[in-house]
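Q&A log
Question type: sequence-to-structure
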Amino acid sequence: GFILFAACVANFSPNYSQYQLSPLASQLMEMFSMTPSQFSSIFTAVMMPAIFLSLVAGILADRFGLKRVVGVGLGFTALGTCLRIFAGSYGTLVVFMFMTGIGATLLNANGAKFIGSYFPPEKNVTMMSIFQASATLAMAVAMGTTSLFPSVSSAFVFAAGISLAALILWLVFARDPKQEAGAGAAELPRATIAEAMRIVVRNKYVWLTAFCLMGIITSATAMNAFLPTALAERGIDAVQAGVVASFMTIGNLCGCLAVPFIANRLGKNKPVLAACAILAAVGSAFAWRAPEGPLLIASLFLTGACLSGMVPLLMPIPVQIKEIGPLYGGTAGG
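Response status: OK
Response body:
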């Protein structure tokens, strides 16, 4: 229980730091004389480590263990979040946001390995739902409350405190799977890099899952990054726009819990994934244009729920593949 809590806080921290940026978009662009495209690069800088480090993160975790690898990443996240308070230019802010994303990259790349190592297969989707809910909760809290802070620096200080708490909790409670033998988790040998790569790269289901997740994350990132700004352009007050946009992240939170539950009750994942994909695609294009009021809120909520609801169904797939399992789960996750 404690290790899942530590992982959830660790997942909450970088997402909270990132999604603070959307409600602060106008202030940050004014402070650092940024264009909208430059602001976009700051928001997406958090995701840049995933491009360069995801595969490496999985390989390292398979080789050296989860606690050590994720702990180093969370250390970089805490450092970047703390240094962000003192950013004096667009360039330094990009660098510090990049550092903030390292912990999220190392943790998420090994999410399937983490869940598959500590929990039995029948609980994988449920535990992944809880793990993913921590990220969507961070988005909802950040989008809904950041505009209430009196200044940008005070919002950044609060995020730094959360990142430090996440690092401490991980170092205290995290254990590698072999140390949990006898508590229900398998004792895992160390995988060699060459062997892990050979097995994972040849598996078509790993690639199919990766492309599905790429589409979901691309759509969700575009929506969450510019939604408050797009709503403000429609004439909605900045604070109100942040509150309305938070309904999409509330939908994210509800979806990642409700959609796996529905799929479990139906006993079929594919029809649920197909329905969510269609609704999410339509919502991503048109939900923000809905008439102001209940219809706008409902459209954003449903879009967020469908986007995030697919993730817990897809993320455990690598460790459920017989040839992969928890042993190579880190490499497959990367």
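Response note: The chain has 17 helices and no strands.
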